[in-house]
Design goal:
By secondary structure, the chain is of the alpha+beta class. It is about 55% helix and about 10% strand.
Length: about 650
Amino acid sequence: MKKNHLLSVAVIVIALVILGYALPVTGRMSEIILTVEEESGRLAEADSSPKIIEITAKRFTFEPNIIHVKLGEEVIFRIKSADVTHGFYIDGYDYFVTIPPGEVVDVGPIIFDGPGKLKIRCAITCGPLHPFMVADILVEPNYVFPAFIFLTLGMFGATTLYISRGPSNRMLGVPLDKDVDLLRVKIVGPILKKILQWRGIHFALIWPNLLIFMIVLTTAFFGNPTGNKNFSIAVVWILWFAAVEFMILFAGRLWCTVCPLPAFGEWLARRRLYGVHSLRKWLSLGKKWPKSLNNMWIPAFGFLGISLIVPWLVTRPVVTGFLFLILIVLPLILHPIFTRRYFCRSVCPAGGYIGHHSNASILAIRCRNKTVCDKHVAKECIGGSPKGYGCPWVLYPGGNDQNTYCGQCFECLKSCPLDNMTLKLRMIGQDLANLATKAKDKFDEAWMDFIRFTLVITYQLVFFGPYFWFKDWGNMGNIFGANLATIGLLTPSFQGLSNWFGWAVIVGGTALVGYPALFYAFSWLAKKTAGDVEHAPKQVFLSFSYALTPYSLFLWLAFAITLVTVNWAYPLTAFSDPLGWGWNLLGTRFAWRPILPDFLPYFQLPIVLVGLALAVNSTYNIAVRLFGDHAKALRASTVMGVLHTLAALVFIWIISG
């Protein structure tokens, strides 16, 4: 079956047009541009006989892992399995072939009539790392990759041109001082207000998720030991993980609103499921949280630590089970000691990265008028009222101007007697410049950005890249799945531990040292180029790091799209067969088949480019606030924009190069 490549042609033509403006005029554009169809035909005529490519499939790689074919070339793949039964699937081509162990199977002939990078994927579950088992086919000349490069450079150039005009307090043309009061929108506002002020809304949102998490724990410990056949893996690390990224953008900390992890501890401390009481003392020691831990260091290192075992975490149910068991027990211990949601605020890895990156969200809880709040003496939003508790996140909601530590529990909407708290829609990055210029010693938030930013590129490479050796280092060379009964199979060898140490050094070193050092060098150069003499390099470095907040969020969105479109069948099947025992309880058992996998780079590219534009524009807004001068801000933003563009090109290389 031929691959539909009209979109490839369109992207290539657009990129070549952009290139045409940059090249010296040496002749007509028609002499420069060869259409994909002409090149395909020319190469096909050069060699009409099918090319035979031999491939060995073994857990969990194809050898060779990168295959080069010519545009228009006819290929037969001769495949053998070195261990267990594998499947063979090529993005965009209707081939689902079973490869039994010890047998040789020919697939094809296949004519590769569209340029770009395609994936060979294992189509039959062969073990825990089965979803990671991919190889690359590069159809050459690969016009798509240079086209993507030119479009990326074009986005950088266009955004730089835009900020050169000196947009005042705007993000990509949208004013940052404008927002929409959702609770005053006709029809929708009053209904939404009643729902959010209903005392039982929090409980009503939590208990279904609590039920799901009980299923997660049960299936993790007692279900199928192979990850993609187990509810705990398929639902948590495909469906939930991807959904959280979209929640951050469109709904801020909505996950924290519905998260069941702190529920037991909070219910125990309050001695209530959702009602309010003011007379009975909380079941708590009322200790103060250590000031040295009132930051994002624990969540940042927690997220990095989880990522260092991600090949096991997302493929071995028992590892996921123990992680979530810990995350349920911790708040159960901490709440009766510290009362408030310090677990969510300063311990939970998910709460940390969701909180910091929700500053790039279009949604926020804010007061309508700060003057009204400041003049009001009672401050029920802090101390509580008969209708709501004081802020469990230890904030003054009336003066809050960031999403970092606001968990969207809506207690302030319930407790405020002045109806001065509301839910607002606004442009991405409304708070970033203000936060960044106040970040004199916020190394914790800067490193949260560095960790999140580098890990999304790592995840894209590990989950969907062809480099098995790198994945296997993180996997410690282990080929076994595991539940509670078979946990002993995860005992690593000395060689496996040695390889994992190399993996940890590469991943952790890049996140903690390598990229921050590169970022510091660029921020120092940006300061020098701007001619700034008032601010210390540290201040510029920390302030500019906030531009990574929207950038990394959009890269995670690009990753999430691939995660879901390739693996959508696993979580849907898991709802019908949570233990992986072959059930079909809800009729949602589906055969694995990716959704438009050959178009994934074209879906990802616009998201990456928007993230790049947001990073450059955010840097400019921060620099204007920091330096107080348009010319200085423009020069600094251009320098930092080069670094942001280089990062985008690395991501582009992974998906199309």
